[in-house]
Amino acid sequence: MTRAAPPSGQPWLAGLATTLDTEHDYRPRVEGRLPAALRGTLYRNGPGRFDRGGLRKRHLLDGDGMIQAFDFGGDGVRYRNRYVRTAKFLEEQQAGRYTRPTWTTRAPGGPWRNAGNRIRSQAGVTVVHRNDRLYAFDEVGQPYGLDPHSLDTLGEQALGPAGVPLDFKAHTKTDPNTGDWALIAFQHGPRNHIHLVEHAADGTLRRHQRIVSPRASYIHDWFLTEHHALILLHPIELSLPAYLAGLRSFTESLHWDAARGNLLLVIDRSGQSPVRVLEAPASFMWHSLNAYEQGGTIVADFVGYAAPDHFIGERAAFRQIMLGATGEARHPGLLRRYVIDPAHRRVTENILSERNCEFPIVDPRAATRAHRYAYVTTAPGPSVFHSGLARIDTAGGRADVIDLGPRTHLGEPVFVPDPAARDERGWLLSLGLDGDSGTSFLGVFPSDALADGPVARIWLEHPTPLSFHGYWQSA
């Protein structure tokens, strides 16, 4: 934990890691023209509080979860933000200081206040709307539920098998064929296990598999196809003794060892076939794009890094941003493709684009099916703070790009299909930060004509911290 310090290097960039104290509810100014067919709510989740009691978090992933909502209707747009009232948030709010360690920031008080696994959910990474409820996920514990209309916190939501405490990962998958909701959890111990959980569309538990993991690894995202789940295990080593003794934070206990390569688990969703473990070249994945089955092979696209220097290490960009500096990020995220032959235990990797990118998404109608386009954030050079969006044609790598300049940041795009279009047309909604005005905006970009720029910008009255992931719910 560090004392709050003024930003350095690129002060405007520190807006991405600035605490938003006020919970707002107002109608922001709209520049341009909103598409008439854009009706619904964009929910976003990310860290919102980095400072308390004169102390500042040390890493971008360490902030308390905050839900933001943009409601699109016939009378314009309404903006709201509410903190997720997790047990950790309420405990520290009452104390007026930080009491719990987070990813990289240890709790004040030395090793004894950090010994054991004391990290608790901040519910600040992803948000999913299901059965008239929002689910806010972190990387530990169960998700927190929220009322999608009032954004009131409803407490932890029990998912998975009854009586089995699981640390669910932030990313979940929905099977468009059945409506099933799939989740994974990683369980560390003398033997490491991965749990694959699937809930039916009505919320009932459909399947649960407990799978021995050949490696203790940090997982953030994964792949789902019609019949398989794919889990990518990076060569990240976790020093549990140092972490559990309270001598190091979680991220300070991680070490990248590229020589060990990746392991890819191919899991039969029905549980009728044994799990296959395949080897692949080392790369670090934050986010998958999509995966689908093609004859006897599986195609899986994702953004991968040769090394995660932006994530772990003293000079990592995710740490230096807390001081308003760009930090280290020598290895760009590249759009990669695995062609997987499970029968012959073979994985072939191809680079689909040399463009630096992150936050890959597909048109949601293409999930688990063959796709052509990847929609990503992008920037010149290896920076992880991006100023543009791109639509990359996976068939040849050609990209349609919009870049808003070096003093703009654009976050993860969310694809909203045009209900009147039969082809892949719609809008990309991206929450940005304008370095000149110091305020944030939501850009509305035509998915099939990015180079034309946004058709509208919704200007907030303040900066909003970096929002990791979003979810569109049509009206």
Question: Mind explaining what this structure looks like?
Answer:
The termini are far apart. 4% of the residues lie in helices and 42% in strands. The protein is mostly beta strands and 475 residues long. It has helices at 87-95, 240-244, 317-320, and strands at residues 2-3, 25-26, 29-32, 40-49, 51-52, 55-56, 64-73, 76-83, 126-130, 133-137, 144-146, 153-156, 173-174, 181-187, 193-199, 205-212, 223-224, 228-233, 236-238, 254-256, 262-268, 276-280, 284-294, 297-305, 334-341, 346-353, 357-361, 373-378, 388-393, 399-403, 408-410, 414-417, 426-434, 439-446, 456-459, 469-474. Mean pLDDT is 94; it is low at 1-8. The strands form nine sheets. Strands 3, 31, 32, 33, 34 and 35 form a six-stranded antiparallel sheet that branches. It has a five-stranded antiparallel sheet with strand order 2-8-7-4-36, with no helix packed on it. Strands 9-10-11-12 form a four-stranded antiparallel sheet, with no helix packed on it. The chain has a single domain, classed as YVTN repeat-like/Quinoprotein amine dehydrogenase (Methylamine Dehydrogenase, Chain H, 7 Propeller). The chain is built from three helices and 36 strands.
Give a concise summary.
This protein is mostly beta strands and 475 residues long. It contains three helices and 36 strands.
- Residue fraction in strands: 35-45%
Quickly count the domains. 1
- Spans where pLDDT lies below 50 across 5 or more residues: 1-8
Biggest sheet architecture: 6 strands, antiparallel
Q: Into which percent range does the helicity of residues fall? A: under 10%
Supply the CATH class: Mainly Beta
Radius of gyration: 21 Å
Q: Which CATH architecture?
A: 7 Propeller
How many helical stretches? Answer: 3
Terminal residue distance: 43 Å
Could you please say which CATH topology applies here? Methylamine Dehydrogenase, Chain H
CATH superfamily assignment? YVTN repeat-like/Quinoprotein amine dehydrogenase
How would the global form be characterised? globular
